[in-house]
Structures are given as structure tokens and as C-alpha cells.
Write a structure and sequence with these properties.
It catalyses: alpha-D-glucosamine 1-phosphate = D-glucosamine 6-phosphate. The active site is at 109 (phosphoserine intermediate). Mg(2+) binds at residues 109, 246, 248, 250. Residues 3-140, 164-259, 263-374 form the Alpha-D-phosphohexomutase alpha/beta/alpha domain. With 459 residues, the chain is an alpha/beta fold. It folds into three domains: 10-159, Alpha-D-Glucose-1,6-Bisphosphate, Chain A, domain 3, CATH 3.40.120; 164-369, Alpha-D-Glucose-1,6-Bisphosphate, subunit A, domain 3 (Alpha-D-Glucose-1,6-Bisphosphate, Chain A, domain 3, 3-Layer(aba) Sandwich), CATH 3.40.120; 377-458, Alpha-D-phosphohexomutase, C-terminal domain (TATA-Binding Protein, 2-Layer Sandwich). It has 16 helices and 18 strands. The strands form four sheets. It has a six-stranded mixed beta sheet with strand order 1-5-4-2-3-6, sandwiched between helices. A five-stranded mixed beta sheet has the order 8-7-9-10-11, sandwiched between helices. A hairpin with a 5-residue loop joins strand 17 and strand 18 (423-430). The longest helix is centred in the C-terminal third of the chain and has 26 residues, at 433-458. The protein is globular, with a radius of gyration of 23 Å. The model has no long low-confidence stretch (mean pLDDT 93).
Length: 459
């Protein structure tokens, strides 16, 4: 049976795969698991019930899923603070700021509206490790906590949730944004209220698109996965910069004044150099995944910034940041984590810090982005591959080695198995697009050939 929890909580088609019954059960199981241990002993000694923050993005299914989660928690003796529609990083912040004992966010991030998800945060607003998620999953079939009378939890509105988060964000700014025209694309998502309010309070002249959520239009043609409208608006209005969030606002991508996309790697490069100059880049280290562009690695090496690589997924970046006590990391997709201010990727925080660097230096975003050269990156998916069987294939290893020799320091090869389906991703970076395409296709052909031989030998 496949694991219920994926790389970012439990996700699925709402009311089919992710049902109210499952949401109720997960909440009850989480209540049992997350109220164990030393912190739970402290709560009981204080003579109070545990407290959980509950939040969601604006997709319509979040209403009934949120009600189910609240019921599951309260019926397990947990007091629920319902923060309503706020970004995922806002929920994580509020858990630590209140402080609550744990929290639940209902969102499917950048997925379309019919999908939804449930993710849990522990005390301090940090993501749960795999083993704790596994314990919650195993508890689904066990007897639930069932207090009565005064032991039953209460459900209350977290009235000042958004205000607390906005004040926190404004307190992180190294420089106000006065005089800069910013176009915000909120993906009709959870940042539709918070992000415009915060950028305006920071002094920016703000134009907003994609900020009219109706429960069904989240991520639909707007946001960090659909940048065309933002690019058009920035150029048409003569704005200085565009900032795009995804549905739950844990990502940020940007657009410069000419409409060019500035991705997560470029944003991290800009922030890393700024933080190094200001003496706040811990150990002069940046944490990224194996998918980050070679140009980022080369740019950081030129400035004496060490780059540590992790597997793909912001949770692995978070683990490495925590293990080393580092201050900055993230993904090419725009998940950027600044540990001084957040326990998870925060798209509003990232956008604020990026625009603040423009204000601090007096440079345009295009000028700041010159800190790194983006190398052409070609990705070919080879489906139907049992990557375990091919892992020690000498022919593939020789083909990779040959390409790496030809590319030298001006390119890179990465074979990465998909975590969700039988597929190998062949990625090649090179100084020229045509060279990257040629090598990616030739290596993919070798992988397909080996796959055919494996199939013939097994017939």
C-alpha cells in the first residue's frame, strides 16, 4: 500500500481521494501523536488543553475539509484557533508566535482548484519528519482520543492572525520600498489580502492582479505557474518589478521591468550576495537542490559562497538548513527559506526582501540578476524505467562520463528518478542550448535502449 503522506502532506482530489472522513481521521490521529512526549507533559502540567492553529487557502473544498479537521481536533481535546484564509508560511509563523502546540494547513499549493491537501506543522511551526507522519498514518486505524465534558476542545476564531503576520513581515525589512512600482500576482490564492497590504505598508506603489479568489479560480491562469499576465502587466504599466505567488504563497518568482522571468535560483543568488555583504549569511553557505542551475553554483563560487546540495523537495532543504544552522536555501521553483525570519518557504517574505534589495542598492532587478548567468537546462523524461534496475548499468554510466568529459566545467549531467512514477529525468546543462539539447537526447536514447534490453531479457 503506498504511503499516504507525500513530500508535502496528504494531497488528492477533494471529495474523492481526500474526503471529509479522511480529514477527520487524520486530525484525530495527529491529535493523538502530536500530544505525546515532553512538550505534551509540559502542557498537561500547565493544566490546559493543547492548542492548534488551523488555516487554509481559498479553494472551495477547504471549507468542508477545514470543518472536518476542526471537528477531529476538538473531539480529541484540542483547542482550535481558526485563522481562516492565510498563506501556509503565515500559519507556520502563527504556530510559533502564539505559541500553539501544532498546526494544520489545508492547501494544495500550486495545484488546480479541485485538488486539496492537508499538512501538519509541529510546535515552533516546523514541518514534520517522515517518521512522525508515518506514526500519524498508522494511528488512523487505532482508537481515538475521546474526552468528554470539559475535556473537549473549543473552536475559536484567530481574530488577529493576518495582522500579526503582516507586522512580522514588515519587521524583517532592511529597507523600505518607497518609490518602487510593484505588480503583485496573488494567483487568486491565500496571499490575495496579505501580500498587497504588506507591500503597500512597506511603501511600494502596488498594482494587484489575480487577487479575486472565488474558491474555484485559484492558480487558474495566474500566479507563479502562469507568469504571462504578470509579464504583460509589468511591461504595459512601466512597473519596476513583478512578484508572483502560488496558491498558498510559499513560493515567489519575479519579473523584471522588461518582462524577463527571474526564477528561484536567481532570487537566491541575489539574496545570498546581499546577505554576505551585510554579514548575515551564516557560514557563507547556501543550500539548494540538485536541480538548481549550474550558473548559480559558479556565481556563488566566484564570491566565496559554499553551495550545499540536497534531494529535490523543500523539506530536504529545510533539514539541511536546520542541521547546519544555515540562513538561506531553497529551490529553483521559488521556494526560498530564510531561517532568521521563517520556518518554511515564504513567498511574501521573499518578494519583500528581493524588492528591498532593489531599494537598498538603487539597482534594477535586471542589474541585480546579473550576479549569475543562467545556463541552458534541458530536461527529458524517459518513462517506463525501473531506475533501481538501471542504477548500476555500466553503459549508462559510461555515456554520462563521456558527456561530462566533453562539457567540462561548462556543463552538468543529472539522472534523477521520479519519486512518484516509473520514470527517469535526464537533465543536461551546457553553455549553449543546442549542446544541452544534443547531449540530453543522446543520453535519453541510451537509457531507452537499456530499458528495451531489460524488457527483452525479462520476457
Amino acid at each position: 500500500m503506498p504511503r499516504l503522506f507525500g513530500t508535502d502532506g496528504v494531497r488528492g482530489l477533494a471529495n474523492r481521494e481526500l474526503t471529509a472522513d479522511l480529514a477527520l481521521g487524520l486530525a484525530q490521529a495527529a491529535a493523538a501523536v502530536l500530544t505525546q512526549g515532553r512538550h505534551a507533559d509540559y502542557v498537561r502540567a500547565a493544566g490546559r488543553r493543547p492548542v492548534a492553529v488551523l488555516a487554509r487557502d481559498p479553494r472551495v473544498s477547504g471549507e468542508f475539509l477545514g470543518a472536518a479537521v476542526a471537528a477531529g481536533l476538538a473531539s480529541s481535546g484540542i483547542d482550535v484557533l481558526d485563522a481562516g484564509v492565510i498563506p501556509t508560511p503565515a500559519a507556520a509563523f502563527l504556530i510559533a508566535d502564539f505559541p500553539a502546540d501544532f498546526g494544520v494547513m489545508i492547501s494544495a499549493s500550486h495545484n488546480p482548484a479541485p485538488d486539496n491537501g492537508i499538512k501538519f506543522f509541529s510546535y515552533g511551526g516546523t514541518k514534520l519528519p517522515d517518521e512522525v507522519e508515518d506514526r500519524i498514518e498508522s494511528f488512523l486505524g487505532e482508537q481515538k482520543l475521546a474526552p468528554t465534558g470539559g475535556g473537549v476542545g473549543r473552536i475559536n476564531r484567530f481574530a488577529d492572525a493576518e495582522d500579526r503576520y503582516v507586522v512580522h513581515l514588515l519587521g524583517t525589512l532592511p529597507h523600505r520600498l518607497d518609490g518602487l512600482h510593484v505588480v503583485l500576482d496573488c494567483a487568486h490564492g491565500a496571499a490575495s489580502g496579505v501580500s498587497p497590504e504588506t507591500f503597500s505598508a512597506a511603501g511600494a506603489n502596488v498594482t494587484v492582479i489575480g487577487a479575486d479568489p472565488d474558491g474555484l479560480n485559484i492558480n487558474d491562469g495566474y500566479g507563479s505557474t502562469h507568469l504571462e499576465r504578470l509579464q504583460d502587466a509589468v511591461v504595459r504599466l512601466g512597473a519596476d518589478v513583478g512578484i508572483a505567488h502560488d496558491g498558498d504563497a510559499d513560493r515567489c518568482l519575479a519579473v523584471d521591468a522588461a518582462g524577463r522571468v527571474i526564477d528561484g535560483d536567481q532570487i537566491m543568488a541575489i539574496l545570498a550576495v546581499s546577505m554576505q555583504e551585510r554579514g548575515i549569511l551564516k557560514d557563507d553557505t547556501l543550500v539548494v537542490t540538485v536541480m538548481s542551475n549550474l550558473g548559480l553554483r559558479l556565481a556563488m563560487a566566484e564570491r566565496g559562497i559554499r553551495v550545499i546540495e540536497t534531494k529535490v523537495g523543500d523539506r530536504y532543504v529545510l533539514e539541511e538548513l536546520g542541521a547546519g544552522g544555515y540562513s538561506l536555501g531553497g529551490e529553483q521553483s521559488g521556494h526560498v527559506i530564510m531561517t532568521e525570519h521563517a520556518t518554511t518557504g515564504d513567498g511574501v517574505l521573499t518578494g519583500l526582501q528581493l524588492v528591498a534589495e532593489m531599494a537598498r542598492t538603487g539597482k534594477s532587478l535586471a542589474e541585480l540578476a546579473e550576479v549569475m548567468t543562467v545556463y541552458p537546462q534541458v530536461l527529458v523524461n524517459v518513462r517506463g524505467v525501473d531506475h533501481h534496475a538501471l542504477g548500476g548499468d555500466e553503459v549508462i554510466a559510461e555515456a554520462v562520463a563521456l558527456i561530462e568529459t566533453e562539457l567540462g566545467e561548462t556543463g552538468r549531467v543529472l539522472l534523477r528518478p521520479s519519486g512518484t512514477e516509473p520514470m527517469v529525468r535526464v537533465m543536461v546543462e551546457a553553455a549553449e542550448q543546442s549542446v544541452a539539447e544534443q547531449h540530453a537526447e543522446s543520453l535519453a536514447a541510451v537509457v531507452r535502449e537499456r530499458l528495451a534490453l531489460e524488457a527483452d531479457s525479462g520476457a
